[in-house]
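user: can you give me the structure for this one chain? tokens are fine.
assistant: on it. calling the predictor now.
[tool input]
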Amino acid sequence: MGALKEQSRYDLLLAQFQYSDLYLNEKTKRSLERIRTFLYEETDVHYLVFIRQETLIQYLQYHRSKKFNRISFIQAINDIKIFLFFLKSKKEITSIPKIDLSLQNLNLWINL
């Protein structure tokens, strides 16, 4: 039963990451795939509409915990920016998380 539930959750996330109506280059697609994989493997999110600022910060913390071996810090930031752009393109998502990724957000960087 648990495997079926996880497969359903994976299918739910996969269905929400459809971007065939957007022109995206391969680098952008890989960014979205990394976010999707993170959401599936490291969170319990089922629907993109429930993504919050904390989830995006968790993405940075996750890569920090891996010592940015898989991707660089800059790429993790770019992944979040691309993901936010992707969310804005989805008409059914009306609440886009706000996250200040500038250097002026000292609190974020100190707590990271």
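assistant: here you go. The chain has one domain: 2-111. The chain has a mean pLDDT of 88.
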